[in-house]
Write a structure and sequence with these properties.
The structure holds two protein chains of two kinds. Chain A is built from 21 helices and three strands. Chain A is mostly helical. In chain A, β2 and β3 form a beta hairpin. Chain A folds into two domains: 329 residues, ABC transporter involved in vitamin B12 uptake, BtuC, CATH 1.10.3470.10; 150 residues, Arc Repressor Mutant, subunit A (Orthogonal Bundle), CATH 1.10.10.10. Chain A has a three-stranded antiparallel sheet. In chain A, α13 crosses α15, α16 crosses α18 and α19 crosses α21. By secondary structure, chain B is α/β, with parallel strands linked by helices. Chain B has one domain: Rossmann fold. Chain B is 34% helix and 19% strand. In chain B, the strands form two sheets. In chain B, strands 6-7-8-3-9-10 form a six-stranded mixed sheet, sandwiched between helices. The longest helix of chain B is centred in the C-terminal third of the chain and has 16 residues. The N terminus and C terminus of chain B are likely disordered. At the A-B interface, α11, α12 and α20 of A face α6, α8 and α9 of B.
């Protein structure tokens, strides 16, 4: 294909497609429209690319081109991929603490609050006779405005009786509105370069230069160093603020540090993913990581990894498909990672949960079967069967007809057969030829344990319900562990006192 | 008190650590390196030194606390004696937890002064252990029981340093004391309510403090946890520590505690349990609520017999 010479030229042309006028204000109001306007404008300004306006198809990149991009052969691709990967790393790390501090939406308000900061920085730079597109200047403005936005949220939260969500909503929308007004004013200023500001709304990673990538790299490194140094302090802050305060940790200062880190990441994310989507980079990797682990350090590392991989893949995909905007693609890759984690995460993923639930059902069914067999046998107790101290038959050769088991519980014949098949596989019961089931030695021992525990718990609930009904753990094999030995002794005594007359241990010589 | 005594070869980080093995067990003189310079016999006399003995673990003077202009505690004046198990008892909304939180500086006071061993709380934090209510944190947080208990050591570990093996061992010892060592590596959401409460207790024990505040540690726990907490309380008392417990269960007050503070927005009365736990005082604390009064009457008849719970 002719259009595949270097991705560098394509990236260049990508940056060149900036509609000089129009679109900007609309873009600010509704970021999607910016995207539409841009793509619509693109083919007209991209004569080298070989696309016509009707060319809306999706073309697969060639192998050679894919390899070129994946191995970062091109300078421009390398810059963009490196910058975005670092961004993913930093945002995953900070995002973990942000998520656990339950401040996800604060980050959203913060990124929106950055827009007026960018506008004001542009105006200031122009008035000072500088280049309005000076990136560090714009980002500094975004940083200050973001901090102010968070400050406003805190002020509203502490001085009024409004709740957090209201404070967030107010700051988010007002600052975005202010940003749009400022951009409109800038639009009418007699200087050039205004259109470049649009990229902060939805992001345009392809426009990233080496200097921008360095800014991201340094910020990301700083963020990671601070997170590593303050790991234990941030963990305490996120887990138990009250205890941290009582211990003399400066809770407010730690909170400010955390929010400053978040602001920093948001600001460096503005250029590549844009203010609308910046929050996704912070939250999604962390939320995805939670499905994989129950340990904060591992969760942080996993989130950083997911962020990194998403950044890398997103940048690569959008380099291969020039129509694909980098920011949204990164977010979509992140979301794909989240989807996979949600289903397959080894700690809390759906598959694991379904599996655990199924195992639980299975275990309960097995206990029901053993108990039913034991009790069925017991109910037909005759004097030649030996009872032990706690009202239990010694399970020598317990054999029960299948038909007798069926009415014991609300199971269908098919269900019962299924459970029995599992029990046979586990060596707990035998299936006999005369359509009856008998317990093996292992099954007998387990049945005895299950029945004993069940009866002890039942007695406990009847006699000690007032103490702590929530602490009945029917599954606990060692009931003594939960209740204590003396309580179990007392329960056993109660149980044997309640022996119905017919289960009194019979005389070995008969009546 | 089983603090780690045999340390492994010390690393540089461990050496730099400010902790010394707090193995000194002399019941009163329990002190650690941090207190060496700030022992109760400090020279600076507090402003109200006359009314409040300098050695009192907790002295509250004229404390008033309000939520949104509505006072919750009025003019609380209180001295807690050392080495005793102290219960704060009162009806719902009496300000029991507020009293603790204000004493720990977690809540602003309208007026008043709190002295811990004769000095403001700010300077005595290392002497104070705190067991918050279980509901105040998110138990879904990705940490293990041991991680939570290790938080009790953070004050000793100091800024920026990771939790070293020595502190891990101390945390494990604390878990052992509440019979939870076997659950050390469980994620905290997999623990039962009582076990979670014991983890919080272990975290406070890991601090090795002199004065403990516990906010409703007995609230809806199982029998095993209740036993473990009572045992720990007695261990602490035997080691000369002072424990202040917000308590809700009148039935067990006389059995578990030495000293009683009856609170209902003000201190109704305080003193040793034997003197203070009377029907008249309870009536003054709880008002004329009939059910409670009859409950109390029942209690007094019960007390002539043997205590119920083991």
């Amino acid at each position: 294909m002719a259009r595949i010479n270097t991705s560098r030229s394509r990236l260049r042309s990508f940056t060149a497609r900036r509609p000089k006028h129009g679109a900007l204000v609309i873009a600010a109001v509704l970021s999607m429209s910016a995207f539409t306007a841009e793509t619509a404008a693109a083919p007209m300004q991209n004569p080298k690319g070989g696309h016509s306006i009707a060319d809306t198809g999706f073309t697969w990149p060639t192998v050679e081109q894919t390899v070129r991009v994946l191995t970062l052969r091109d300078y421009n691709t390398r810059i963009v991929v490196m910058g975005v990967t670092c961004l993913g790393l930093a945002s995953g790390t900070v995002g973990t603490f942000l998520l656990l501090r339950k401040r996800s939406l604060t980050a959203d308000a913060l990124s929106h609050a950055a827009l007026p900061g960018i506008g004001l920085a542009f105006i200031t730079l122009v008035l000072l006779g500088q280049d309005g597109k000076h990136l560090p200047g714009l980002l500094a403005g975004a940083f200050v405005a973001g901090c102010l936005g968070v400050g406003c949220i805190l002020i509203i939260r502490h001085t009024t009786r409004l709740k957090d969500d209201a404070a967030l909503g107010i700051v988010l929308s007002v600052s975005f509105g202010l940003g749009v007004v400022l951009l409109t004013i800038i639009q009418q200023m007699p200087v050039g370069g205004q259109a470049g500001l649009q990229r902060f709304v939805i992001g345009r990673a392809a426009s990233m230069g080496a200097r921008d990538a360095w800014v991201i790299l340094i910020c990301a490194a700083a963020v990671i160093v601070v997170c590593a140094a303050l790991f234990k302090e941030l963990q305490l802050l996120c887990f138990d603020q009250g205890y941290a305060g009582a211990q003399g940790w400066p809770v407010i200062r730690l909170d400010v540090i955390l929010m400053a880190l978040v602001t920093m990441v948001t600001v460096i994310a503005l250029q590549s993913v844009g203010l609308v989507l910046a929050v996704a980079m912070l939250i999604i990797p962390a939320a995805a990581a939670r499905f994989w682990t129950d340990q904060l350090m591992r969760m942080t590392l996993t989130a950083a990894l997911i962020g990194m991989v998403s950044g890398y893949l997103g940048a690569v995909i959008s380099a291969l498909q020039p129509r694909m905007p980098t920011g949204p693609v990164i977010v979509l890759v992140c979301a794909a990672g989240f989807g996979v984690s949600m289903v397959a995460g080894i700690r809390r993923g759906m598959v694991v949960r379904v599996w655990r639930h199924w195992q639980l059902n299975n275990r309960v069914a097995m206990q029901h079967l053993l108990r039913a067999m034991f009790e069925q046998y017991e109910s037909g107790a005759t004097p030649d069967r030996v009872f032990d101290e706690a009202r239990m038959i010694q399970p020598r050769r317990i054999k029960v007809q299948f038909d007798k088991l069926l009415p014991k519980r609300s199971w269908t014949a098919a269900e019962l057969r299924g459970i029995a098949a599992t029990a046979v596989r586990r060596g707990l019961i035998h299936r006999n030829d005369d359509n009856s089931l008998s317990l093996t030695d292992a099954g007998g021992a387990q049945a005895r344990r299950v029945v004993r525990n069940h009866r002890l718990w039942e007695t406990y609930l009847i006699h000690y319900a007032d103490i702590a009904p929530s602490h009945v753990d029917r599954d606990a094999d060692q009931i003594e562990h939960v209740l204590g030995r003396d309580m179990v002794d007392r329960l056993e005594r109660l149980l044997s006192e309640q022996l119905p007359p017919r289960t009194v241990p019979p005389s070995p010589h008969g009546a | 008190m089983n603090q780690p005594t045999a340390n492994p070869p010390r690393t540089a980080a461990a050496d730099a650590d400010r902790t010394v093995p707090p193995a000194r067990m002399a019941s009163r003189g329990v002190t650690d390196d941090q207190t060496a310079s700030a022992t109760p016999v400090a020279h600076t006399a507090p402003p109200t030194g006359e009314e409040h003995p300098r050695t009192a673990p907790l002295a509250i003077h004229d404390m008033t606390v309000a939520y949104d202009r509505k006072p919750v505690l009025w003019d609380v004046d209180l001295n807690v004696p050392e080495g005793q198990l102290v219960a704060i008892v009162g009806p719902n909304g009496a300000g029991k937890s507020t009293l603790i939180k204000a004493a720990l500086n977690l809540m602003p006071m309208v007026s008043g002064q709190v002295l811990i061993y004769g000095k403001p709380y700010r300077k005595q934090r290392h002497l104070v252990g705190y067991v918050p209510q279980r509901e105040t944190v998110d138990w879904d947080f990705p940490v293990s029981a041991l991680d939570v208990v290790a938080m009790g050591r953070y004050g000793r570990i100091g800024w920026f340093r990771p939790v070293t093996r020595k502190h891990r061992r101390a945390a494990l010892d604390a878990l052992e004391r509440v019979e939870m060592a076997q659950y050390a590596h469980r994620q905290i959401s997999q623990l039962s309510g009582g076990q979670q409460q014991r983890v919080f207790l272990a975290r406070a024990l890991a601090q090795d403090a002199k004065l403990y505040f516990m906010d409703e540690p007995f609230a809806s726990v199982d029998a095993a946890t209740e036993r473990a907490i009572v045992r720990v309380l007695h261990e602490l008392k035997d080691a000369g520590r002072t424990v202040i417990v917000v308590h809700h269960d009148l039935q067990t007050v006389t059995e578990y505690f030495d000293y009683l503070i009856l609170l209902n927005m003000r201190v109704v009365t305080h003193g040793s349990v034997d003197d203070v736990f009377t029907q008249e005082n309870l009536r003054m604390t709880y008002g004329g609520r009939l059910t409670l009064l009859s409950e109390a009457a029942q209690l007094f008849t019960q007390q002539s017999r043997s205590p119920g719970v083991d």
